[in-house]
Amino acid sequence: MRHDTRFRRAILVVSAAATALALTACSSGAASQASDTASQASDTASSGGVTNQLVIGSMLWNASVPFYSNFIVGQQEEADKLGVKLVMVDGKGDLGAEVAGIQQLITQKVDAILVTASDATGIAPAVEQAVKAGIPVFAVNNRVDDAAGAVTFIGADDYEFGKQQAKLLVDSVGETANVAYLVGTLGTSAQLLRQKGFEEVLAAHPGIVLVATQSDNWDAAKSLTVVQDWLNKYPKGSLDAIVGQGPEAANAAKYASDRGRTDIKFILGDYPVEVRNGIIDGYILGTVDQDPRPQGVRSVEAAVQWLTGQRDKVVQPNEYLPLPIVTKKNVADTPAAWGE
Predict the structure, then answer these.
(1) What pLDDT sits at residue 129?
(2) Is 229 within a domain?
(3) Are 307 and 56 in contact (CB under 8 A)?
(4) Signal sequence span per UniProt (predicted)?
C-alpha cells in the first residue's frame, strides 16, 4: 500500500506494538529498541520550545490503510496551523497495540486524545482510563462505545452512508436483483452501521436479494479474491450488482469489466482516485464520498476548541460531515478525495 510521503515527513508515528514489547520485555534487544521509541515520543510530546503548548495525541488503528493518508495530513496541517504539538500512535491493526497506544499517551500526559479505533467496544476501557485521568477523548472516523465517555464523535454518519448506498442500488437495478455485498473489517463501527443502514433500506424492497455477503477487511487484494470467486460462482446474468462498503473493490470492478462482466453494476464507498477513474470509465456506477481530510482537520480543531474555552463550538454527541453521492453525472466536477 502506498503511503503519503508528506505525513511521513510531517509527523512522528509511534509504534504502539513496539511500546508493548518494551513493557513486557520479551527480549533485551527488542525492549531496548522499543524503550528508545517511547522515549523519543515522550520528548516530542514535551518539547517544541513553546511554554504551555497544547499536546494532542492521535491513536490511529492502522496508518497503513490508504484512506488515512489524507486524514493524517489533515490532522498534522491543522495542528501546525493552530500551533499545537501532534503525537501520532499507530495501532497497526491490532487492538492490543491500540490499547497500549492510548495508555502510552495517558502516561505522556497529553492534553487530549483523538481515537480512531478498530473496535468500538474493545477500545472502551482504554478510553475510560484516559477520561478518568482527566484527558478528554474524541472519537474520530470510527466510533467508541458511548459509555466510555468520549466528548463527541467526528466523522461520517455510517448509518446514513449505508442507506445512501442502498438507495443508489435501488435506483440503478429496480425492484428485482441479485446482489453481493462486500463489507469491511468485521466489528468496526463503519462496517456495522453501514450494513445496518443498507439492509434497512433493502427491507422495503424484497425483490432485491443479497445472495452473498463477505468481508474484504478493507483490503484491495482480498476484495479482488472475493470478487473473482463470485464471478466464478455466479455466471453471466445471475448477479446484477456488487456493493462494497469501501473503495477496495475498484480494481476488482475493472477486472470484471475487462473480462466482459459488464452485466454487474459496482457501487462502492469512499472516493479515491481509482474509484473516480472507474466512474469516468464506466465500470463503477457510483459511490458515497467520505472525504478523510476534513475529518482529520476538524478533529484537531475541535480538540483545541474544547481545551481553550470554546466548548460551545464542539457539536455533541455527534458531528457529522457531508456524504455526497458521486456518479457519472457529477464526477467531472468532483475531485477525488485522495490519491493521485
Answers:
(1) 98
(2) yes
(3) no
(4) 1-30
In this structure, are 98 and 232 located in the same domain? no
What distance in Å separates the CA atoms of residue 192 and residue 215, rounded to the nearest whole number?
A: 11
Tell me the average pLDDT across 80-88.
Answer: 98
Cell numbers of 34, please? Answer: 522499543
Structural domain including 89 reads: 5-156+292-308
DSSP annotation string for 245-302: SSSTTHHHHHHHHHTT-TTSEEEEES-BHHHHHHHHHTS--EEE---HHHHHHHHHHH
Same domain flag for 70 and 213: no
CATH number at residue 241: 3.40.50.2300
Model confidence pLDDT, tens digit, residues 213-245:
999 999 999 999 999 999 999 999 999 999 999
Q: What percent of the chain lies above the pLDDT cut of 90?
A: 81
> What does the pLDDT look like over 146-158, one tens digit per residue?
999 999 999 999 9
pTM assigned to the model:
0.77
How far apart (Å, rounded) are the C-alpha atoms in residues 261 and 53?
57
Judge if 65 and 82 occupy the same domain. yes
**Residue 98: is its pLDDT beyond 80?**
yes
Instruction: For residue 61, give the nearest of 105, 116, 18, 16 by alpha carbon.
Output: 116
> CA distances (Å), 336 to each of 158, 223, 267, 288, in order?
20, 21, 16, 12
Q: Is 313 within the bounds of a domain?
A: no
Are residues 209 and 271 both part of a single domain? yes
Q: Let me know whether 95 and 170 are in one domain.
A: no
Phi-psi region at 217: left, alpha or beta (left = phi > 0; alpha = psi -120 to 50): left
pLDDT at 126: 98
User: What's the CA gap between 194 and 158, in Å, rounded?
Assistant: 5
- Domain identity same for 145 and 263: no
Answer yes or no: is pLDDT of 289 > 70: yes
